[in-house]
User: What shape does this take?
Amino acid sequence: MGEAMGRYQAAREPAPETMWAWPLYGAGLDNLGRNHRPVRLPVPMPGPYQLLARIDAVGLCFSDVKLIRAGGDHPRLYGRDLAADPTIVGHEVSLTVVEVGERLGHRFRIGQRFVVQADIYYHGVNLAYGYMLRGGLAQYSLLGEEVLNGDAGCYLIPIQADVGYAEAALTEPWACIEASYRIRYRCGLKEGGTALFLVPGDGVEYRLGGDGCPATVLLSQVPQTLEAFLRQRWEGKGTVFVVVEGRDAAVVGRRETQGNGLDDIVLLGPTSPSRIEALASCLASGGVLNLVSPVPDQVQAEPTKAGRVPLDVGRIHYDDIKIVGCRGPDIAEGYRANTRAELRPGGRAWFLGAGGPMGQMQVQRALEMPDGPRAVLASNLRSGRIESLARRFGPYAEQRGIEFVCLTREEVGDEVYFSGIERLAGKGGFDDIVVLAPSARAVEEAAPYLAEGGVMNMFAGMPRGTLAQVNLGKLLARKACIIGSSGSTIEDLEYTLRKAERGELRPNGSVAAVAGIEGVWEGMQGVAEGRFPGKVVIYPQVEGLGLTPLDELHHVLPQVAEKLEDGIWTREAEEELLGGRWARP
Assistant: This one.
């Protein structure tokens, strides 16, 4: 490490009086900064319970674009008047403490490095960093009580000294990916929840194994034998039973939960797709709809009399609901049928809509897993960005013996596209399908390719109410499932950061372009237009470097370009950049 980089890491030099920043003054990209340029602002002074942090690296995210487009109408800004009180965007941040408030000396010191868990709650209110709280697209940031003593504790996660600034910042989006494989589904009814048992009538003697004692149980058309069994099991534990007669069970369920929804709905026997759709809409966040076959020894090929059921894939992603099924007579079998979230070792994985930054990161993760899939398909509808995946990771996949195929549907045509899918799926189908395209049609086309025990991961966020027509009977008969998750927690971010520190994850592999503080506007425009196959990383302390794709870096900074490894960003390239170009106070 050179002397200049050593001084930078130590962060001992005093902060300047002013800094460059990109305030957002209203809706639209033209309201970011002034005349597409950063603004000179005073560097804030920390109070007794505050920290002043130097922003070292920021990843640009499409969520930033959504915020910029919406302005004060964005739901996380609560109608804020940005013209009078501008915010600063940027939530994928790594930073260094440069000043410590006089009452925080026992907790923090100058030179400490952190990443920020941006989804901050303070006294029950969401004050996300880079939204309500001014974020990282500035050279310095003031961190107060909301960040240091929020509802979940401190939202700063410490970084080891040898981890690069960009790779640390990018653990935030990587944590969302890791979180989607760390989903833990319960294997029984929710403890202390509200459950509805609905039995149209079939005369089967059902039983219920496993754990989970609901606080409230609603009974609709339930046979006396099952009702007696449930009462015997739970009544002595304080469970309240409500018999629903001649009324809409869903309406009663909403009333009993004050509109929050039901945690469990157990449907025993056949019903119509419209009934399943209606019941699923009554689930609470994290709720489970369990469809149990009326015939114990019959494979549940059609639990609904009709194959295609409209599934709200938006709720699966954002609200973590799940629809399960089993043959019976043990009702709990449905909960235990498929609780896998991680990619199947040695399996076949299809990443649908893989051309964007998050898609490329998903594919990179699959290819680099120590015990990952043996065949990986990356497909996209129309973007040519997916070609960079083949260039960057094709040789690596070949070295590891992984069959790696990239397909762009509009380029090859439907016939070649679907024949390629069928060839890679083989006779058994895909063990994992990760949907990165916000399209119900994509879900409908992909679901039939799920293998026995397969998992479809709804990673793309679609609005709640987005319905995909899926043959649920066949899906449940194969013990396949559709899961989803949104965002990440402090635990997810810390887990991801530790993986990067151990070398088990390479966030730098997702860097597509870099820029200094002046390159923010063009970088945001590039993200909005989908110009880059990976992430744009801003180094706010660097001045005089416009937006530069890595494959053009040799024209601008040849000494930095020499430090790339097979075209991939490295810690050594970052050190070369910062050591020579950071703006001294």
Notes: The domain at 348-484 is CATH 3.40.50.720 (Rossmann fold). The chain has a mean pLDDT of 91.
